[in-house]
């Protein structure tokens, strides 16, 4: 197709793209240029929590676009205040003040700056298998050597990596110089890894004992995806800082980090800023997303549908020897296959059959559909995967 050539000519070669050109979306579906329909189990990678073009989000965006799209943070922005107030009704009790930015990586960078400013300490403990984004400090805290090492010179030498889900290792690593421990309550890019039950609470205790801050990166696991508004709430963990983005704007770019007033007030005017952060348009999209999610009780739905989905994936695991593991929480699910070749082939064959799925950590099929997914969509995908795995095993 012509667009593949033109894209090669004009776009940075940073993405390995599927040969698909989605041009329209509605709910669980997207259509490509030729009118072929796909059921979307990627959802913009855990972004489109309400599916595509939800009418309440679309309406809020177009109304706000007609009234006032952007104004500087030199002024008061009512939508930003309203969004922060709404967020304070769903975050753990420790999180009551918010800073708005545009992406997950920015939310992580801001969280690190806040931890530095508050603790006046210099090191950050991060986890193996982690992913926190592509800007300098965020990629510095990201485990995957291929993402981090080419940019070594741009990355501050402050990160101490420890194995995920290993409290003893964390206890040894967190010291007097540790400003923060950054952790994904459920690792996404790292292959959908759920820690043991006492892990996050244990990290919180270690941080409190040593005067470090616990940063939960809920960019992927937050906004209802795992069956609670934030995954850390499954274990009653009260982080010092939460970073979020992805689902927050229902498809419109917006990121955020939140903290307690005592910690957030370590910032004073000039300490941190973002031109676009929390502008009226982005905040209107997020307010509409949050209100609709609350009305539909989507975290609860994610829990219910996730349980069903995981059971059906586990059935596939019993039938197909190439399936090595099925794991995850709510609608953040992973199915690990025997090798990368099988995973890649599954993604392509699923697309041919009209399903968008994604593969992460080489050989883990990652399933992060909109939280409005229904049993019939899940059943259809399971049927397709059954045929795909059967064909690949032959
Ligand atoms: N943190 C986590 C846990 C993520 O999954 C991601 C993106 O996948 C990020 C941070 C970075 O977010 P963004 O791509 O919006 O910068």
Description of the molecule:
- By secondary structure, the chain is an alpha/beta fold.
- It has 2 domains: 150 residues, Aspartate Aminotransferase, domain 1; 242 residues, Type I PLP-dependent aspartate aminotransferase-like (Major domain) (Aspartate Aminotransferase, domain 2, 3-Layer(aba) Sandwich), CATH 3.40.640.
- 39% of the residues lie in helices and 18% in strands.
- The chain has 14 helices and 15 strands.
- The chain starts with a helix and ends with a helix.
- Bound molecules: pyridoxal-5'-phosphate (PLP).
- The site of pyridoxal-5'-phosphate has 14 residues, from α5.
Keywords:
single chain, Aspartate Aminotransferase, domain 2, seven-stranded mixed sheet, alpha/beta, four-stranded mixed sheet, 15 strands, 394 residues, globular, binds pyridoxal-5'-phosphate, Aspartate Aminotransferase, domain 1, 2 domains
At a glance:
The chain has 394 residues and is α/β, with parallel strands linked by helices. It is 39% helix and 18% strand. It has 14 helices and 15 strands.
Provide the fold topology.
Layout: H1 2-10, E1 22-26, E2 29-32, E3 37-40, H2 43-46, H3 55-67, H4 78-88, E4 97-101, H5 104-119, E5 123-127, H6 136-140, H7 145-148, E6 159-162, H8 167-173, E7 178-183, H9 199-210, E8 213-217, E9 241-244, E10 255-259, H10 261-264, H11 280-295, H12 298-319, E11 323-329, E12 332-337, H13 340-352, E13 355-356, E14 358-360, E15 364-367, H14 375-393
Parallel strand pairs: 3-13, 5-6, 5-7, 7-8, 8-9
Antiparallel strand pairs: 1-2, 2-3, 4-10, 9-10, 11-12, 12-15, 14-15
Helix pairs in contact: 3-11, 4-11, 12-14, 13-14
This protein binds pyridoxal-5'-phosphate.
């Amino acid at each position: 197709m012509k667009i593949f050539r033109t894209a090669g000519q004009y776009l940075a070669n940073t993405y390995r793209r599927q040969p698909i050109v989605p041009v329209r979306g509605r709910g669980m579906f997207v259509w490509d240029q030729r009118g072929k329909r796909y059921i979307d189990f990627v959802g913009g990678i855990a972004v489109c929590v309400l599916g595509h073009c939800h009418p309440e989000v679309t309406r809020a965006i177009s109304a706000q676009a007609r009234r006032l799209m952007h104004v500087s943070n030199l002024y008061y922005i009512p939508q930003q205040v309203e969004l922060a107030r709404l967020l304070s009704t769903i975050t753990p009790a420790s999180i009551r003040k918010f800073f708005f930015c545009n992406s997950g990586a920015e939310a992580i960078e801001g969280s690190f700056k806040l931890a530095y400013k508050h603790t006046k300490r210099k090191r950050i403990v991060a986890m193996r298998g982690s992913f926190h984004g592509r800007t300098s400090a965020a990629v510095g805290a990201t485990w995957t050597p291929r993402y981090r090492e080419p940019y070594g010179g741009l990355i501050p030498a402050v990160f101490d990596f420890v194995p995920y889900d290993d409290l003893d290792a964390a206890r040894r690593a967190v010291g007097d110089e540790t400003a923060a421990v950054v952790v994904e309550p459920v690792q996404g890019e790292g292959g959908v890894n759920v820690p043991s039950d006492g892990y996050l609470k244990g990290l919180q205790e270690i941080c409190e004992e040593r005067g470090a801050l616990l940063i939960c990166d809920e960019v992927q696991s937050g906004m209802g995806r795992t069956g609670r508004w934030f995954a850390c709430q499954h274990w009653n963990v009260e982080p010092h800082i939460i970073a979020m983005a992805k689902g927050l704007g229902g498809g419109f770019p917006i990121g955020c980090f939140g903290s307690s007033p005592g910690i957030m007030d370590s910032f004073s005017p000039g300490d941190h800023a973002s031109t676009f952060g929390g502008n009226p348009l982005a905040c209107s999209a997020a307010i509409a997303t949050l209100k609709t999610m609350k009305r539909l009780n989507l975290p609860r739905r994610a829990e219910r549908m996730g349980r069903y989905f995981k059971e059906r994936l586990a059935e596939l695991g019993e039938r197909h020897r190439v399936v090595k593991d099925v794991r995850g929480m709510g609608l953040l699910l992973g199915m690990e296959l025997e090798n990368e070749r099988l995973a890649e082939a599954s993604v392509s064959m699923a697309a041919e059959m009209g399903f968008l799925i994604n593969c992460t950590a080489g050989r883990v099929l990652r399933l992060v559909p909109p939280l409005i997914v229904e049993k019939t969509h899940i059943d259809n995908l399971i049927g397709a995967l059954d045929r795909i795995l059967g064909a690949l095993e032959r």
